[in-house]
Amino acid sequence: MKYAFPQDFWWGSASSAPQSEGESLSFGKSATIWDEWFRLQPERFNQQVGPQQTSDFYRCWRDDIALLKRLNHNSFRTSISWARLIPQGRGEVNPQAVAFYNQVIDEMLAQGITPFINLFHFDMPLAMQQQGGWESRAVVQAYAEFADVCFRLFGDRVKHWFTFNEPIVPVEGGYLYDFHYPNVVDFSRAATVAYHTMLAHALAVRNYRARGQDGEIGIILNLTPSYPRSANPADVQAANIADLMFNRSFLDPALRGSYPQELVALLRQHDQLPPCQAEDAALLAQGVVDLLGINYYQPRRIQCRDSLVNPDSPFMPEWFFSHYAMPGRKMNPYRGWEIYEKGIYDILTNLRENYGNPRCFISENGMGVEDERRFEQNGQIQDDYRIDFIREHLQWVHRGISEGSRCLGYHMWTFIDNWSWSNAYKNRYGFVQLDLASQQRTIKKSGEWFAATAAANGFE
Ligand code: BGP
């Protein structure tokens, strides 16, 4: 076989509690920031579809796990909803949630599917947001308690934990670019949120290790390789700053246990360093992960700014660079994201060459497409574009592995078409098509292709 993958390679897909469970205000679950934002501004959500309308994993978990099995998944990632497990964010545990997650984990194991469990997927409980969200040190502590409850309740069976999915996204969305609640635009608040998130991560890692459970703990980062427009030093420096701000601000603490000095110096120079306490550095040093999840969708194309910054304008990352569209680039027009398959290989190479070749896996990669019904023939969506997308990314992953990268698996985003952050059901990503009204599931052509690839552990 031309593209054979290592033995025990993780083949699967990823999802999250808020995007799949439904029942977002029932069975003891309290509101998250998404329920609240939908209540306040439903017009922000595509066709006014909010987080209550999903593929209803809360009820359909048994059938859905059977479908995962049918797609030859040997592993699957989802998340535990903090607002479902501990509705007030702190304190009392919801027994209905415990029963639900126990059933899900047990059924996955019974079907031979290894559960990968993530603890935070953009879904801050509203009760915690009302106390300041990630701007508050008390919330950092509350998150660590929630993580500990999860380790205690489920850690006998879950062996692959993740503290956060894409922790930079709530920073960008909620505090810089206005696409998540609480939709403020303020760099210094954003920096505090980012910093506290990594403190929360490190606390959870430290506490997990203190339990001595037999398993591993990691984090899932969306890495966006930052390519300069030219070899001109100004473009290279601009790309370097974008890399520091959007990748290394999380990657370095996760893999090295500390922030890049260059980033610290830059923020200090502009008086944007978040408030630190004396004991933080030692805590961050304990947050180095056992396993890194890599979400890869698109690269970042960077050039130097062509105009001077107005020093009276609010401080923003864009003080240091501009984006540009690479001529001839391949695009996913529905999501507006560039498709650049080699980026996934460049990430693996960077990790190997500059970060000591950590154990890692591709935890998300995927292609959201609008109005997929157009591609239906004889009752099945013929999503050859998605098969090509996966195959071309996997070829680069394969090359990275053959050069020595310790990439242990590939999880696709996502299993069943799911609800997405304000886009709702506009872009479909699933191996399985969802009819939202009837809740009917139909495997797409890509799902069949993936099942065959997983069974063969590779492809020609
Ligand atoms: C990632 C998130 C997922 C998922 C995916 C697709 O950033 O981890 O939750 O939603 O992107 O993005 P979107 O749904 O915004 O198109």
From TrEMBL:
<dbReference type="InterPro" id="IPR017853">
    <property type="entry name" value="GH"/>
</dbReference>
<keyword id="KW-0378">Hydrolase</keyword>
<dbReference type="InterPro" id="IPR018120">
    <property type="entry name" value="Glyco_hydro_1_AS"/>
</dbReference>
<dbReference type="GO" id="GO:0016787">
    <property type="term" value="F:hydrolase activity"/>
</dbReference>
<comment type="similarity">
    <text>Belongs to the glycosyl hydrolase 1 family.</text>
</comment>
<dbReference type="InterPro" id="IPR001360">
    <property type="entry name" value="Glyco_hydro_1"/>
</dbReference>
<dbReference type="Pfam" id="PF00232">
    <property type="entry name" value="Glyco_hydro_1"/>
</dbReference>
<feature type="active site" description="Nucleophile">
    <location>
        <position position="364"/>
    </location>
</feature>
<protein>
    <submittedName>
        <fullName>Glycoside hydrolase family 1 protein</fullName>
    </submittedName>
</protein>
